[in-house]
Please model this.
Amino acid sequence: MKRTWVCALALGSMLIAAAVLMSGSAGSRPALAQDDPVGTPPPEFTGALLPTEQGAFFSGAGNCTTCHRDMTDANGTNVSINTFWGSTMMANAARDPYWQATVYAEITNLPDYRVVIEDKCATCHMPMARFEVAAEDQSGLVLGAGFTDPDSEFHALAMDGVSCTLCHQIQPDKLGQPDSMAGAFVIDTQQPIGERDVFSRFLVGDAGVAMMQTASGFAPVQSTHITGAELCATCHTLYTPYVDASGEIAGKFPEQMPYFEWQNSDYADRVACQTCHMPRARGEVVTSIVGGEPRSPFAQHAFVGGNVFLQQIFRTFGPDMAVTADSAQFDMTYARVLDQLQNVTAVVAAQPVALAADQLSVDVTLRVRTGHKFPTGFPARRVWLHVTLTDASGAVVFESGAYEPTGRIVGDDHDADPAHYEPHYTTITEPDQVQIYESVMVDTEGAPTTTLLRGAGYVKDNRLLPFGFDKDSAREEITVHGVAADDADFDGGGDTIRYIMKVAGAEGPFTVTVDVLYLSISANWAEKLRVYDGAEAARFVDYYDAVPNVPVVVASASGTFKN
Model:
């Protein structure tokens, strides 16, 4: 019997060996996350004005964009900071409706810790406002009469999110050290407003310094620390406290660890966070409308991440949240997120192993290109494999990893019952087995949980590892948990899974399609908010019901097996 494996897609990366016979490239199929999430194109809108309010240490972004706008690269492409930044998750960290709903849920579950929860969350989501009050030995409150209240003294600075004068004032002190992380960045508190330094990668002459200080109250100082991963690590390395069954704080939990994941990869010595998340403009850029020397390299303030679902929510309901970017800017940010997910994140390939009378065996190999785990960050995110086998008539013979419009994965034990979770697999033989790459938290009693302040550890963490990641030497906060820890095919760079699919009674040729799917908010993490009656939870649920939680195809492959 002659067997031929017919390629349907060419491999888009040399990451997979030439021996692979069936392969596909990232971005080879359109995203399933829809450009038109609510059925008709959402209306265009104009964003609100950027704030210009000042505190003792910070200034609203509107004061900076007075001059740092109308910037173009060597090709004449607009690379203005406000055009890029205003529609990012950084700018909208405080407006993020999922975050606000989650804060409400956490303080409802543990009301005795309301101040601790809100102050901790405000540290990086509303960093300027929270720092202002912390300097006066006060706690940063978020909801109710807190920073989200328009009558709050610090409302404008709070809602400006992670803004210009926050990041550009972080001092080099302690960067890269544990005591600079979880929001413990250092901001100088001695210089008065009007005389404060802000850091730039470029040297600014005396005339430029004087002009900027007069216009904004801040004087630019050259320092290379602003280009390092350690700057990002101050907030993107996050420990949160957890409580035991009696409600007592019992320790701290490594909620987000992309910096340590990066440190344990091949990227650490050559590619900083900013390389991918703030890609360089083409050629030189004049960074101010008042002129000055063209600068290169200029890091575009795109802050491209993976939160594609919230980008759709902002695009659909932006005016409801008083966003300061317009609909076109959100469209561009959404397109950048899709481009990064689909074209530079992962590749997948499959190799036929054997075809017998009753079953077809295929090895699926997934390789990632990220400098940290994929997915990384907040534990609501997940990646999984959707594998479909069809016969000569196009009928589905085998399918693993199908999904519903709500984002639920068919066959996932965790989506079926939050008290359980889907294990990591080395071999999949049944349709209700699904390879899902995720982190699953457990409480102090070992039960799976989606309540952050009950998350004491991980029972499963098989998120895909970056190249060079050593499972044996990784620090405890980023180690692999569950079956994947002993899976020899799960290593730095990706994973290989064998699919053994029953074909008895079906007629070939058989076609196998593999999609790598990604959700930034998994179904259970969103659905849990339905039980809360607070305004923040209700608003997010309304948004969630209006915008289908449909995954993005990160990579795909398809091929036909003839016998």
In short: The chain is about 25% helix and 20% strand. The radius of gyration is 24 Å. Residues 266 and 468 are 5 Å apart (CA to CA).
